[in-house]
User: Which sequence fits this backbone?
């Protein structure tokens, strides 16, 4: 976003600084996506598929749990309709991410389609919790975060597909980095908002869904349940005020 | 096993299904104003979803057999405590991850 008369070198330097700060933000995702992507690539290669498919899937689908589900469906010999329905159901939680980003994404310009495409759990969590460095472009910062995360994911899955069977790295437990990332981001949200209610809703909806639904379905179920509680409570508050 | 064409079609289908879920709210509310109730809950959705993602990450823990989720709960507690104390994201995340890797790889809680 160069302004007239501004030195080109200065813009370049500012963009480079922004890239570095986006990189620092995404380091936990790097450490999480490499082992997770490797697990996916390893499984797909184990099912007998060339690594190029791991690459293509990670490039065009870019959904961690969705791609692991795809491997399971491939192994089960599922039909196209099953692929479509299972993917829609598993990833439907992402629709709720977009709902909370409508305003935030309204001014990001031509990178918007890519930002929407790249809306994984982690790429949703980082922009909503990270402050944009002062005086820099929001769209460029978000784009760097999304593209870096995407790049880590592709790299991990290709590495897993190519080296999975050769390499004997003990990465057990490394994917805990994503759990830790979400814990930290949740606490940051608490520091920023100082409200307890969304957390209480999450705890109750989460616990209930763990009991009632299978581990694969609990996230979508709990997000739907929690959103209904949030709406219901808002409705009650408004009704009280109008009385 | 699928042949090349079948595999490519399958990837296109999964990609479109995934993109649809992500684009849906932007398509629905791209041109018209979202309902008022939505803008009110908009600020409450992110904290709720983030905590649900934490719970989701712990969904495969076996709570009723040894080691009863103790490595996960212990490490999550350390991460949270460290973050409330120092509020340094990298410190909390990497201390927690390293600790967890040591706990599970050396099977520290095997005595339980």
Assistant:
């Amino acid at each position: 976003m160069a302004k007239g008369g501004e030195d080109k070198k200065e813009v370049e330097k500012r963009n480079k600084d922004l890239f570095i700060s986006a990189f620092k933000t995404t380091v936990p995702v790097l450490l999480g996506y490499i082992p997770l992507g490797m697990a996916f690539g390893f499984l797909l290669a184990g099912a007998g598929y060339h690594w190029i498919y791991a690459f293509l899937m990670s490039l065009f689908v870019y959904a961690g749990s969705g791609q692991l589900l795809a491997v399971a469906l491939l192994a089960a010999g599922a039909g196209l309709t099953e692929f479509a329905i299972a993917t829609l159901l598993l990833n439907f939680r992402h629709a709720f991410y977009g709902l909370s980003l409508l305003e935030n994404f309204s001014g990001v310009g031509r990178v918007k389609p890519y930002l929407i495409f790249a809306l994984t759990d982690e790429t949703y969590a980082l922009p909503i919790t990270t402050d944009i460095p002062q005086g820099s472009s929001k769209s460029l910062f978000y784009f760097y975060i999304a593209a870096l995360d995407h790049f880590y994911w592709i790299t991990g899955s290709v590495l897993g597909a190519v080296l999975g069977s050769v390499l004997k790295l003990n990465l057990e437990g490394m994917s805990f980095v994503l759990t830790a990332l979400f814990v930290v981001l949740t606490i940051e949200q608490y520091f920023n908002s100082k409200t307890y209610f969304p957390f209480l809703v999450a705890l109750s909806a989460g616990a209930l869904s763990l009991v009632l639904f299978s581990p694969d379905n609990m996230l979508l179920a709990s997000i739907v349940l929690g959103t209904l509680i949030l709406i219901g409570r808002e409705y009650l508050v408004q009704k009280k005020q109008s009385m | 096993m699928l042949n090349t064409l079948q595999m490519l079609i399958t990837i296109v289908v999964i990609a479109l299904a995934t993109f649809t879920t992500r684009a849906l709210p932007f398509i629905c509310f791209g041109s018209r104003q979202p309902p008022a109730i939505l803008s009110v809950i908009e600020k409450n959705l992110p904290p709720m979803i983030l905590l649900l993602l934490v719970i989701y990450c712990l969904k495969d823990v076996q709570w009723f057999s040894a080691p009863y989720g103790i490595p996960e709960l212990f490490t999550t507690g350390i991460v949270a405590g460290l973050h409330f104390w120092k509020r340094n994201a990298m410190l909390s995340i990497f201390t927690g991850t390293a600790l967890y890797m040591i706990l599970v790889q050396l099977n520290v809680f095997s005595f339980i």
